[in-house]
Amino acid sequence: MKIIAIPWLILWLFIMSEVATMPLTEVPLAVQLRTYAVCGTLYVGSVKFIRESERMNECQEMVARAIYQSEWYRLSSRNRRMVCVMLRRSQRPTHISCLNNMMIIDYKLFTGINKFFYSLLNCMKNVRGRH
């Protein structure tokens, strides 16, 4: 299933880069709180978005299992061919993807993004601490 997720990724990258580069001593508290609220909202929205992608894939796997366990091999030759086509189609993963299926939106991607920005925040903290 192709759903455009690029705006979500761009917003995620923008907010996290803003948090990573924000000088904590010079920014007013209200701006900091607003940025953290937007970041938290984006995080919760991302979790829901990724959970729906995973749920779609789980449902697709359940359909494939149900077709396979339905004793389709006892059907007539014509019906068996139709069921085989259904089975082949149901065995394809159905995660939400973007960039023409180059990037699959799932928990693995979400974990990778979190690790990257955690490393970026620690790097920025170390650089600020030295100056």
**Helix proportion:** over 70%
End-to-end Cα distance: 49 Å
Q: H/E order of the elements?
A: HHHEEH
Give the count of helical stretches: 4
Structural shape: rod-shaped
Q: Main sheet, how many strands, which sense, barrel? A: 2 strands, antiparallel
Number of domains: 1
* Cα radius of gyration in angstroms: 22 Å
Decide which structural class fits the backbone: mainly alpha
Number of strands: 2
Low-pLDDT sequence parts: none
Biggest β-sheet: strands ordered side by side in the sheet: 1-2
Task: Give the strand content.
Answer: under 5%
Q: What's the rounded overall pLDDT mean?
A: 79
> Quaternary status of these chains?
single chain
Outline the structure in words.
The protein has one domain (6-20, 29-120). The protein has 4 helices and 2 strands. The chain has helices at residues 6-21, 29-68, 77-90, 107-130; strands at residues 96-98, 103-105.
What layout of secondary structure does this protein have?
Layout: H1 6-21, H2 29-68, H3 77-90, E1 96-98, E2 103-105, H4 107-130
Antiparallel strand pairs: 1-2
Pfam families: 7tm_6 (PF02949)
Main location: membrane
Membrane topology: Multi-pass membrane protein
